[in-house]
Specification:
Elements lengths: L13 H21 L13 H25 L10 H21 L1 H15 L5 H22 L8 H7 L2
Length: about 160
């Protein structure tokens, strides 16, 4: 049996090549589909097709980085998985989906922020929830007041920005 080793004396990382193939395929599809969008460009000359092309090329560059990592070889093992932080983030996303229309964008975003902070070790919800709500209110204000785009409003948004 012949083992092919990299310059570092390790075998190439096969998982990195699989991820690279997926990223390259996704990037290629985005670039290809961007060519089918009729592009008006607007006053800035940049339309929706350019955004897809930008993201597509970003995915292709990430694929190349994964190929380089794969050629350098594995880094000695797979780290132990931690299911609790993943559960906090997924739970936060589910709560945001459930709370978005009844409670509004700011409260739902604050819950997601506090659950994500808990995933990173900050489990003081009395501190992280208000911080998340303030951040979400700022985002809501930019979308509602500056960009004139509607996000789901709840009691808090109606109280601050009017109905």
């Amino acid at each position: 049996m012949i083992k092919r080793l990299t310059a570092t004396g390790r075998r190439p990382d096969g998982a990195a090549f699989i991820v690279a193939a997926g990223l390259a395929a996704g990037g290629a599809v985005l670039i290809w589909q961007a060519g089918t969008i009729p592009d008006k460009g607007g006053y800035a000359g940049i339309g929706s097709a350019e955004t897809l092309i930008f993201v597509g090329w970003g995915l292709v560059l990430l694929a190349l980085a994964h190929v380089v990592k794969g050629l350098r070889g594995g880094d000695g093992g797979v780290p132990r998985q931690a299911p609790v932080p993943i559960a906090f983030v997924v739970g936060g996303l589910l709560l945001q989906l459930l709370l978005l229309h009844p409670a509004g964008f700011s409260i739902a975003g604050g819950v997601l922020f506090s659950m994500t902070a808990a995933a990173f070790g900050k489990r003081n919800f009395a501190l992280t929830l208000p911080i998340g709500i303030v951040f979400a209110l700022v985002v809501y204000a930019v979308f509602d007041q500056v960009l004139k785009l509607n996000l789901p409003a709840g009691f808090l948004e109606n109280l601050i920005f009017g109905g």
